[in-house]
Queue: 2 jobs
Job 1
Amino acid sequence: MNQFLSIAPEVVEAIRENRPVVALESTIIAHGMAFPQNAETAFAVEKIIRDEGCVPATIAVRAGKLKVGLSKTEIETLARNGASIAKLSTRDLPHAVALGRDGATTVAATMRIAALAGIRIFATGGIGGVHRGAAETFDISADLGEMALSDVAVVTAGAKAILDLALTIEKLETLGVPVVGYGTQEFPAFYSRISGLKCPMRVDGPEELARLMRAKWAMGLKGGIVVANPIPAQYEIPAYEITPIIEKAVAEARDEKVEGRDVTPFLLARLARATAGRSLAANIELVKNNALVAARIAKAHAELP
Ligand code: PSU
Ligand code: MN
């Protein structure tokens, strides 16, 4: 066990007994949504995973420890103090650990910590990717690089529509990461089920995905799997409605010189405001749906002969 890890007893036991565990990130709590919806969503997601017979493990950094499995109080602290909590990607972990800091972990950092703990499935809302205008800004989320390194399957509603989805898929192809449509051939665009882009492969159901996971890692192929799971139809915001709003938010970010780790939270907050909360409602529902699918995959993976 890595000396920097601090794993909740319930999670340790489940991992030891090969019972299904689903990892969850904390940046979405601290920086992806506002209070109190962020706390409510974090608790709802953990409950969905428990109701499926799995153990949830929300991941963050506390006093320099890589914490796997947070208490209710710890989740609530992250939710209430959003803006003042550090957003930690993989590159930030050594500093936070060495100096005994606290922070919320992105998809990249959560994948790394989950892999260290031996957790193979992780549910998020949407992974980071290649930002629009990346040819000039070079803004490509570390989530993509991590996908090539950590052996974790990440259930995600495609990638956020604030990104350049075509370039995101290209980058994942270069990195050798399977992008698997879950019950669809279409690569979903977070708020919308349709992006006009295709996934290079498709599976139908948790057993097929579990077999893909085993095949990949048993062959010694390192790295993650993108499980592209579309938002349920009743909650989607059609692309023609959300696209102009996104374009406006991206232009505002550029005009206001928002950079680095602040870009994604800025865009999410602008969208929530511009859609009078509709993007937030969609975000909440797709996260819950991803948690449900991740739990089913975790069970199928634990039950592989
Ligand atoms: N998905 C959401 N909301 C979020 C994020 C994902 O629905 O807030 C976060 C994730 O933690 C992801 C991060 O890893 O945004 C990407 O940030 P960046 O683009 O700076 O890598
Ligand atoms: Mn970035």
Job 2
Amino acid sequence: MVDKSFQTEILLELVFSVSHEKSERLILDKSLPLYLRKLNCFIAGVLKIEEESRIKELMIVPFAAGKTNDWDKVKTYFSSVSMEDGGKPTQFTYNSVYYYGLCLNGYGLLILGRKKPFTFLFLKELENVVHHLGKALIQSNEIEKRQLAEKNLIVSEQRLMKFLQESPSDIEVYDSRGLQVVVNKAYEEFWGIPSSKTLLNFNILKCEAIKGMELFKYVNKAYEGEAVSIEDYKFCPENNVSNVYEGVERWMSTRIYPLISQNDELTHIVVTHDDVTHRKEAEVKLREAKEKAEESDRLKTAFLSNMSHEIRTPMNGILGFAELLKQSTFDEEDRELSIELIEKSSARMLSIIDDLVNISKLESGQMELYISETNVNTQIQNVRNLLSDKIKSKNLELKIKSSLSNNDCFVKTDREKLYLVLRNLTENAIKYSKHGVIEIIVDKKEGFFKFSVKDEGIGIPLKKQSAIFDRFIQADIGDKRAFQGAGLGLAISKAFVEMLGGEIWIESKEGIGSKFYFTIPCNVDFKEKNLLKNSITN
Ligand code: ADP
């Protein structure tokens, strides 16, 4: 039997202890065993009521080894007996030991085992203590739960903060008065301003620079509770809003939205900016590539239809005049005329076929260079000899102006290609001239032979000039058919000149005439410059 004053002391200490020890585990692991020892209990346990009313043994406090064999039976007994919260202790005697089960005020069950029974009065007092202890345990349990929830909240907040900080979008949070309260890393990179300068110093509603921008209208809308999205707009702050973007035009996407509390009050607004310039640029490039592909497709179709016309016309000429030749009514003059026309049509066919072969070789990179010592003056003379009849027949005049003496008219180059370029330019000059003089001029300057072929023909409109060296575009030029031609000559000439290490360009005025220039280097190491592998370029 515990002496009365001692009992009171225990109870006071227990009450005092539980009111300070707020943690459930501390109460159960540390305080409780001490007092149980003072109460001369040789065994004790707390059975906690878990959710769904399951009872879980939390702690056994065995003082005397070897005397706990009956614990399972005792526990089962008390778990099955219905006990009231704050009600009297339930007593159970087993193997001459007294066990008391006391309700821990909704928390669970405290079971005490003693060799001797408690006095009635002591049990009465113990009821209050246990009641109080249960309350404290429940309270500490709640505190623990709250702490856990707070800890979880902190973890989730940290996770959220990390996400916010690492987000590539600029994120800015402003409180209800417009004061900037949170910004992320992207904000600093975005605007080139350290957050330490703006955070809690910057008021979006009071910033004069922002007030002058359209953005301010949307900020106000967000403060009125409306979420606004401004997709892909051009952003170029003229004022001091940004160090980084000042005067630089960028593409932006912006979202501004309010944060509303549970009480329906606007607490903050969030502004997010995304610099979508790269995406926008990629879109533009994609669109351009698509347009180019469509254009190229259109030009190819036009080229093919032109090609079929260019092949059919001389073919019809050949077949038609061959048929006429069979007729015996033809006199000698008609006969010669027919043969001449067949020859001309065949030559035209051959030239088209040559052009096609050349262009396909250039396209596939199979065009080769044959370098040999070449007399530039001789090549010009050859062109004159070839085309003199044509020139005469059109009442044109051809002048050759060469400043090259017999000593400096030699160059190591691909003779055939040089000849073809000169021939093509002169043929064009004849083709596109109704009258006047055609001049082939050559001189040597700064390590280059500079050639030009000048005519007083129809000239080329400025807007078409950049296109004439491209291989499919000529076919698209409206006036083409009136003059015949596959539209490949200049594309081939350009590719040849570039293969030889030079450049080709044009000066022309519509109705006045054209002057085509091209250069070839006096000395060039074709292997070193990798020119042997050159192919046609657009
Ligand atoms: P083609 O003469 O067979 O049409 P080219 O590639 O030689 O093809 O020339 C391309 C286009 O450039 C011609 O269709 C013509 O419109 C224009 N052109 C070329 N040379 C001249 C020139 N000397 N005068 C006027 N236009 C020219």
